[in-house]
Every structure is written in structure tokens, then in C-alpha cells.
Amino acid sequence: MKKTVLYSFLYILFMITSSEDLQAETKIAFNVSFSEPQAHYTDVEMVLSGLTKDVMDVKMPVWAPGSYLIREFAKNVEGFSAIGANNKSLLSEKISKNTWRINTAKNQTVRVKYRVYCFEISVRTSFVDAAHAFLSPTGIFMYVDGMIKQPATVSIEPAKGWDKISTGLEPVKGKQNTFFAPDFDVLYDSPIEIGNHDTFEFTAAGVKHEVAMYGGGNYNKQRLSADISKIVEAETAIFGENPNKRYVFIVHNYQNGGGGLEHLNSTVLGARRFGYTDEGSYKDFLGLVAHEYFHLWNVKRLRPKALGPFDYDNENYTTNLWISEGFTAYYDNLMLRRTGFYSPQQYLDILTNDIGTVENQPGNKVQPLSEASFDAWIKYYRPNENSRNSTVSYYTKGALVGMIMDLEIIAATQGAKSLDDVLKAMYDEYFKKQRRGFTDAEFKAMAEKIAGKSLDKIYNEYINGTESINYNNYLGHAGVYLSNELSGKSLPYLGVASVARDGKLIITGVVRGTTAWVDGLNVNDEIIAIDNFRVGSQAEIDRTINGKRVGDKVNILISRDGILQTIEAKLTANPNGRYRLEADPNATPEQLAIRKKWLNL
Mean per-residue pLDDT for 330-359? Predict the structure, then answer.
């Protein structure tokens, strides 16, 4: 036992010393090529020079910052090999799911070669085909253990016929298609688009912006440049500076695209190829732009302490995604209001939808917002049939908490301050001055300092608790009020969601506390008939139930795993609300002043 402990200690000491020595001496260069793009492969060569030690570990990250799920990128790696001088193979072995150990055999230069299969369309995963390559770096580039802070160069050899490369990485002067990253955090935060995509540029807030459009579409470059510029200027005004000299939008236009992922000086967006001339779709796209661009400050620089420096091997837990993502979700639509893309009532209608989404989700009464953040790794990105009953979105509810905190601060300061001032003060203090992430307590303290009052109620009841938000308490500051059209009505409700599949009507969801929940209908049950009348769609279920009254008993014929049975169910009242936000035309001067500040009237 003592020998084992001593050996382990010496080994750890050796690895620490080895990493420090490697850090000081080693140079890292990647060569990327595409020998079989039609088969979705990226060929990677990692050249390590200046080595002095006999053993080193190279690792592939298991997740992509901004998307809080272990994705196991090493699963796509094939053909790993290490080569020394005279093209001689070196001994290497895989020692964990994402780690390869190489015996350098005293070679000062080692070439590591591997291939990555890239065939998952999303903003966070790599995709390669005959038309283009999108490289999401955490799933492409390995790093030497202990050398995250080491600089690296990336040289790209485009496939035949490809002539463009778009990335936030800085080009190396005098070297074609070669880029530089000061460390691996920057490399992993710099996606790369390679192919024949359309590009255009504009300048806003003193920053040069490149837009790389893959997939075609009916977009208007001039209109996009002008409209995105408005968003850039409005968001920059909040923080007083734009931290970049150059920014890249990589936009993937698909038949039905969507989603986005933020990066240090770039973003990747999904869009509908022919959605740019539809006003609703176009504003949705601008909202996505506003969301991901706001991350330039909120989360990429101003961020919870747990989100940097990153551990690329494991989950990075934080209870503050309701700030990083939720507040960003609040500001994306608010930016479209401030820049005039939404009218005041259109903006209130969007907030109404968010309120309905949260308040009509049973999980809102089960999972605190802070817990939703912490458990993102195992719940938000891995929903199941019961998620609606047990979880809440830190995006949507976080946005609503952002709204009520904003209104509370505006009211408490008679319009002198707002949530803008909290974010700017946090950015100045923790990113610019202290150069670190913030804690839960530090954010709360700053928000209370700006507001000049305690925010305990918001934190205790709505962030760390599961109380329903008293919206009118906060919206009333601005003379805006929430009403529920179903209030006081007693409407029968079964509480199932279903889908017609192969001629069968299958239950896909059961809502907590409803008739179906209490009387035992299950997901995957086939509903055949209600009170001896055949039903074949969700609409037919709803029509049948709507013809009943609360308290009525109904007989539901189902097939469960091929066994027919009848369930007697007593109908309960619909717990959902149908909400509307309206501005009081008789608001006081004080309320009008707060409304003007909030809605940029």
C-alpha cells in the first residue's frame, strides 16, 4: 500500500512537471484537410515540436461551451496514430474515453494523426459534405493535457473547389489559409466555415462584421446589414464598449433551420433559407442575432465563476444560467423593441407568450430556477415525457425574472437606473477590473446596490423557490397589467397530449395534477374511444371533453401494451391560463415615466 501511494505521488509529480516543461517548450500546429468530404470526414494532423519528455497525453473535449451537455466528441475519432522521426510509428494507447497516451521515444517532434466523422447538423457540432465543412472546434482539435494555455496555429487545406474560409481566428501573415490562436480556449471558441459560401461585410459600433451565408436563401444583404447594425449599436450602448475589432456571423440556411451558439468574437446561427421575406420569420432571425450577439458580453466575458476557466473533461456546474441565458433571452426581444422592430404592444404580446409558457408548465411549481441551471447537464438537454411536469426553462423563466428585476430597479430608482446598469457595473467590475467570473452573492449584491433596495423576495420566491411570479406587482410599476381570460371559468380538461401514429392515437404526454394524471392514463397508451365513441385525433379528444362538465365521469377505452382496458376518469378543471398583457390607458404620470424608460417610448 505504501509503495502504491508513493508511486502514485511520484507519478502525479512527474505529470505536473512534465506538463510545465511541455508548456514552456512545445509548439503546436494543426493541419486540416478533407480527403473524403462526401463521406463526411475531416483529416487532422497535430504537429508537436520541442518535446522533452517521454510521455504525454492528448485529449478531445467532451462538451462545447455554451451548450451544457456532455456530447462525447471522441466517439467520432478514427485512426489515431502517433509518428516520430523518419516516419516511425510511436507507441500510443487509449487510457480513457477521450485520452490517448503517447510514448514519444525521445522524439522532439511528434505528429499525431486522426480522422473525425462529421455528420450532425447543429450549431454546436461539426458537419462536412461535398458542399462545405463546418468545424465546431471542440469536436475537432485535441489538446495536450496541461497545455490549454499554449498557443496553436491551424492550417487548412480546403477540398477541391472550395475557395472561402470564415472564422474569428486571426490569420497568420504570409501564410495562406493559416490561422493563430493564443490558447486553446480561444481555439475552441472559434468555429470555422469552409466552402463557397456567400459573404458580405458591414461596420457597426466601430467593429468590422463579416456575414458568411451558407445554403443560399432570399436574404437582402443591404437590409440585413442595416438591421443587424441597429442591434449591434443598441447592445454596445448598454456596456459602453464593444470588445472586438472584428466579428463573424456564420449563418447556415436550411429548409427549416434554427438555433444559435455564441462565441468570443463570432456566432453560428441556423435560419430558414426562404424565411427572410416573411416578416415574422425575419424578426425571429433578428431576435436570434440579438440573443447571440448579446452573449458577446453576457457569458463570454461577464460570466459565472464556474464558467471559466473551462474544464473540457467534465460538467461545469453553475446555478446562474438564468442570468447568462435567461437575461440574454430577455434582452433579445427587448433589443428589437428598442430598435423599433417591435411595437410596444407586439413586445407585450411576446412577453404574454412567455408568461403562458411558464405558468402553464407544471414543472414551474416543482423545479427552482437556480436548480434548473445546475441540472441543465442532465435535464434541460435530455428531456423526456415527464419533463413538462418536473422542470422549468432557465431561458424562458430567466427572461421573466429579468423583466421583473428590470421593472423593480426602474421603479425603485424613479427611472434613473435599470437592469442595464447592473450588467454594465458587473461587466466593469468582474470582467474588466477583477478579470474573473462572479458568484451568486456578488451578482445579487450588485443588483441590490443599483436598485438601492433588497431583492430578497425575487431571489427567495422566484429564483431559489417555486412561487408563481406576482407579475402585476412588477408590471404595475409601468401601468401594465396581466389578465387571465380563463379566470373564474371551470372548463373540463383531460390533460393528455397525443399523436396519430400508424393509425393509432398514442398518448405522448400526461399533465401533472389533471384527470389523466390522477386516474392513471399513461404515455404510450393508445386511446381508442371515449364513452364508446371512437376518437382518432387530439382535436377529437378535445371536442369530446369540451362537451362535458367538470366532475363528469368518462370511460376511456385504451390499449396498453396490446391489452384492452377501460379507465373511468372524473374530469377536473383546466388548470391552464390564457393570458394577456395590456397597458392601462389611465396610468399615472409616474407609471408612464417608468413605462417610457422600460419600453423605450
Answer: 98
Same domain, 103 and 240: no
- What is the 3-class SS of 192-256, one letter each residue? EEEECCEEEEEEECCEEEEEEEECCCCCCHHHHHHHHHHHHHHHHHHHCCCCCCEEEEEEEEECC
Distance CA 349, CA 343 (A): 10
Q: Is 192 within the bounds of a domain?
A: yes
CATH at 540: 2.30.42.10
Report whether the peptide linkage leading into residue 309 is cis, meaning its omega lies within 30 degrees of zero. yes
**H or E stretch including 115?**
strand 109-117
pTM, two decimals, is 0.94
Contact of 466 with 426, CB cutoff 8 Å: no
Asked whether residue 241 falls in the same domain as residue 131, the answer is no
Query: Could you say which of 196, 212, 243 is where a domain stops?
Result: 196
Joined together, the cell numbers standing for residue 208 give 468590422
Q: What is the pLDDT of residue 280?
A: 96
Which domain, by its residues, includes 28? 2-196
Domain contains 583: no
Q: Are residues 453 and 545 in the same domain?
A: no
Q: Cα–Cα distance between 255 and 218 in angstroms, integer? A: 12
Spatial distance between the Cα atoms of 446 and 430, rounded to a whole number of angstroms: 11
pLDDT in tens, 233-251: 999 999 999 999 999 999 9
Nearest CA among 105, 78, 77, 79 for reference residue 91: 105
Rounded to 5°, angle at Cα 534 from 533 and 538 = 115
Task: Give just the sign of the alpha carbon dihedral 156, 161, 164, 165.
Answer: negative
The number of distinct structural domains making up the chain is 3
What is the share, in percent, of the chain residues with pLDDT greater than 90? 95
Q: Which residues neighbour 229 within 8 Å (Cβ) at sequence distance 6 or greater?
A: 202, 204
- Final residue of a structural domain among 414, 446, 463: 463
| Residue 29 pLDDT level (bands cut at 50, 70, 90) | very high
Domain CATH code at residue 309: 1.10.390.10
Question: Smallest Cα–Cα separation from 581: which of 340, 406, 344, 397?
Answer: 344
- For the purposes of burial, counting CB atoms within 10 Å of the CB of 59, is it exposed (0-12), middle (13-18) or buried (19 or more)? buried
Q: In what order do the strands lie in the sheet with 143-144?
A: 92-96, 99-103, 55-59, 143-144
Please, what's the largest Cα pairwise distance for the chain?
85
Same domain, 190 and 305: no
Are 103 and 181 within one domain? yes
Which residues touch 90 (CB under 8 Å, ≥6 apart)? 82, 83, 84, 102, 103, 104, 105, 107, 110
CA 562 from centre of chain: 40
For residue 477, being part of any structural domain is answered with no
Domain identity same for 239 and 147: no
Residue 274 falls within a domain, yes or no? Answer: yes
Residue 395 exposure: Cα atoms within 13 Å on the Cβ side: 12
The CATH number of whichever domain residue 97 belongs to comes to: 2.60.40.3650
Handedness of CA 569, 570, 575, 576 (dihedral sign): positive
Considering the domain architecture, whether residues 358 and 437 belong to the same structural domain is answered as yes
Model confidence pLDDT, tens digit, residues 267-284? 999 999 999 999 999 999
Element (H, E) at 170: strand 170-171
Residue holding cell 410596444?
Answer: 344
If asked whether residues 141 and 251 sit together in one domain, one would say: no
